[in-house]
Amino acid sequence: MTQSFDLLIRNATIIDGTGAPRFAGDIGVRGDRIARVGDLSGQHGTEEIDLAGAIAAPGFIDAHTHDDRFMLSSPDMTPKVSQGVTTVIGGNCGVSLAPMPRPIPNPVTPPLNLLDDEGQWFRFRTFRSYLDALRGAPAATNCAMLVGHSTLRVATMDDLTQPASPAEIEAMRELVVEAMGAGAIGVSSGLFYEPAIAAPTEEVIQICQPLKAFNGLYCTHMRDEANGVMDSLEESFRIGLEVGVPVVISHHKLSERANHGRSRETLALIEERMATQPIGLDCYPYTAGSTVLSEHRAVSASRVIVSWSKALPQYAGRDLDAIAATMGVSQAEAIERLSPAGAIYFKMDEDDVQRILRFPPTMIGSDGLPHDAAPHPRLWGTFPRVLGHYSRELGLFPLETAVHKMTGLTAETFGLRDRGVLKEGAYADLTLFDANTIDEVATYAAPIAPARGIDTVIVNGSIVWREGRSSGARPGRVLGRDRP
Ligand code: ZN
Ligand code: CU
Questions:
Q1: When you count CB atoms within 10 A of the terminal residue's CB, does the N or C end of the chain come out lower?
Q2: Domain co-membership, 259 together with 366
Q3: Of the ligands numbered here, which is closest to the C-alpha atom of 114?
Q4: Closest CA to 60 of 31, 74, 80, 32
Q5: pTM for the whole structure
């Protein structure tokens, strides 16, 4: 019997996202779903792609993003779709664009300014109105969104240097209930950052209390990723246990030279606790991080590159040392003149990065900052770098494992039903790529560059990226979290 498909992908080497070995086959897409996988040589499609043996994989899920505003202001999502990403998890590190029930301070409280340093995008008084805006003007990618604890603090507290009062905790909790009812998948925290440093563990537990009833999860940029990392892991696990929800340790890393090598300790503890509570973690494949520019962060880095500056935008992309020398001032004075600004900090060790990437439960997340003038290359390069540099060139793990870490594992961790696995009945989120050439092109010196080796990217059955350019289609949806 002849069947017809909207899209027929012929002669694929299929890596299905479960970690299973690759196999040859054709893929028939009808509407937004994968209708058939197998030998479809007698069939035809309205549109056909012959892969001649290249890879077809589930679309990549970016486990850690700051794309809350980017989906609205740049809905083609070029840095993401160009590297094969079809779904982004947003609202991370305690920073979400919504809700903001009262005017945001001017200047915007860092690190909320990573999403918008002008403040006009912080205009969604409720989480529902934000998700409605995403649904009304969809982006090219799907998303699943967290509500940020620091955003909640800025929205409800007048003195961020204090623990929240009982009334403020109640106000934040109500905002969590509203967000979860509207379709958020959980709460993120950024206890490392100034707006949340004063929050005791109990405050986070109380604010997250509604999560269990909504089947939410808790994601955290931990209080300390340096000397105090073991205590911070314990704090994160305790919050997960007391609230009764899964914990995701965001962008796991070991900062500062004294802590290099300690991923042996942290991964051993994470593995041990995984036996008794649900825990996930993600990682970006670089030895430099990126966030707001500040002196205390700069002093412990071996190199600092300025990624944006509101006051002196011409310095974006240049080393802080060189900027200070040009100005003829101290590093501290240069930071003062550049701020508000962002930076890339070299603080991690390659062995830790590789050990964390190799750890079987680790997902891939970019942590890309899409509004920076000279962004960290992770924004454009994370996924191809894992597939090319780390899997193909260094042999850190087989390609099937690399794909699993950015698809099936991530969908399972975040509860994204019928995503992350290439099989009949699943959504047709697909990335077609050449395993022999895929790699990042973006570098620290030239960070804005689409990856190589990505052929076609499909979201909900629609082609969003093909032959090096966006199609203009914006089929992205707001995803919820499935019950386990
Ligand atoms: Zn973070
Ligand atoms: Cu982040």
A1: N
A2: yes
A3: 2
A4: 80
A5: 0.98
Q: How far is CA 409 from CA 17, 59, 61, 88, 308, in A?
A: 8, 12, 9, 14, 34
Structural domain for 339, as ranges: 295-343
69 and 31, same domain (yes or no):
no
Residue 44 Cα, ligand 2 centroid: separation in angstroms?
Answer: 44
Decide: residue 276, CB within 10 A, 0-12 exposed, 13-18 middle, 19+ buried. exposed
Distance 251 CA to ligand 1 centre (A): 7
Q: Which residues of the chain have pLDDT under 50?
A: none
What's the pLDDT at 408?
Answer: 98
pLDDT at 1: 58
CA 66 to centroid of ligand 2, rounded, Å: 6
Q: How far is the CA of 464 from the centre of ligand 2 (A)?
A: 25
Q: How far is the CA of 341 from the centre of ligand 1 (A)?
A: 16
Same domain, 373 and 312: no
Residue-wise pLDDT tens digits, 232-255: 999 999 999 999 999 999 999 999
Report CA(108)–ligand 2 centroid distance (Å). Answer: 17
Q: How far is the CA of 395 from the centre of ligand 2 (A)?
A: 27
The verdict on 173 and 271 lying in the same domain is: yes
